[in-house]
Design a protein that fits this description.
0% of the residues lie in helices and 55% in strands. It has 110 residues and is an all-beta fold. It has one domain.
Amino acid sequence: MSLEGKWRIVEMPGFPADYPDLVEAAYILFEKLGGGEFAFGACTGHIWEASTAEATSIDFSWDGSDEMDEVCGDGDAELQPDGSLHGEIRYQHGDQLPFIARKWTSSTAC
């Protein structure tokens, strides 16, 4: 299975269950050529440099906004044997936010 495509963030360990979907359905998207985007809580980000999404793990850099403040950082994710994606989004000089995601389908969208 490739990491390419949209993944529904279903859990952020250590955060309240309703936090990821605070503004919209939480997700992370990896595009074939190393770009992508994500949204969770009040944060949105643009992935602008990533190792290939065709592998089973990925490292990436990002920039975006959190509650209208400019933020940036890096992150990583790794495909698990059960088909889930476990990763972490890190703010530069700040928080580390773990996430668990599943491949986006019509049943995972809500």
